[in-house]
Specification:
Aspartate Aminotransferase, domain 2, 7 strands
Length: about 260
């Protein structure tokens, strides 16, 4: 199972003890006054639920220890709920870290990235830092992913990124279109489906598909619907071999920080 770096566990540790159950995500009552609603961050101005806040406060007493046990418990519970194997789930310090590692793992100078435009900018930034070509395909007139155009954009692509619902348009990609992308993407490439906003949509998740596809990676986060953007808790779901490729960059991040540089 993939673990996050020890440094990134500081924020993660405060949140994980409350994740032994996933039924506390009832939104807390709106506070008397919300100072700011920062739309550009897509974060909840209300924060985590009352039960989550209480659990975080209770976790302060154990904050001196790394929360590996809680990480494994979270992965095991999520896997049980989704009907998948525990080794198909990895916990990260937010899904953005998992997404960035995926780009670094699956793209390079000879394998490019294909994504929609506009969409979440982190994959493009990570690919550019990895000297990988980036092929941004404009959305359709309905502001949806143009799957046929994305499939044709780069025959040597190492990764196709699909944000569903898309950020920033909020549009959904139909399930059959995602299946078409998975079946017809360039050979050897990985389809990454970012489901950061899936809880806000009446749409099925792709998580269960990882049981049948070893070239699919699905990302989930507690930042949005659970109001825990500052806690940094995210999940990557996929074949153990894919998660192992992400883990390489977790180790590299630790080493680069120890050497005073950045990945």
């Amino acid at each position: 199972m993939v673990s996050v770096s020890r440094r990134s566990l500081l924020a993660l540790g405060a949140a994980l003890p409350l994740l032994g159950r996933l039924d506390w995500a009832v939104a807390s009552p709106p506070p008397a006054k919300v100072d700011k609603v920062r739309l550009n961050y897509n974060e909840s101005p209300y924060g985590p639920s009352g039960a989550a806040r209480e659990a975080m406060q209770g976790a302060i007493a154990t904050a001196g220890r790394y929360p590996y046990g809680h990480m494994y418990a979270l992965a095991a519970l999520f896997a049980q709920q989704q009907g998948i194997a525990e080794d198909q789930v990895a916990v990260f310090s937010g899904s953005m870290a998992a997404l960035r590692y995926a780009v670094l793992a699956f793209t390079g100078e000879s394998r490019g990235l294909v994504m929609a435009a506009p969409s979440y900018e982190v994959p493009r930034q990570a690919a550019e830092s990895n000297r990988a070509s980036v092929h941004e395909v404009s959305l359709t007139a309905e502001h949806a992913h143009d799957i046929p155009a994305m499939l044709a954009a780069d025959p040597q692509a190492g990764m196709l990124y699909l944000c569903n619902p898309n950020n920033p348009t909020g549009t959904l990609t139909p399930t059959e279109a995602i299946r078409h992308a998975l079946a017809n993407k360039p050979q050897g490439s990985v389809l990454v489906v970012d489901e950061a906003y899936i809880d806000f949509a009446d749409a099925p998740s792709c998580v269960s598909w990882v049981k049948e596809h070893d070239d699919l990676l699905v990302l989930r986060t507690f930042s949005k619907i659970y109001g825990m953007a500052g806690a940094r808790v995210g999940l990557a779901i996929g074949a153990p071999a894919l998660l192992a490729r992400l883990a390489v960059f977790v180790v590299m991040t630790i080493m680069s920080r120890q050497l005073g540089s950045d990945l």
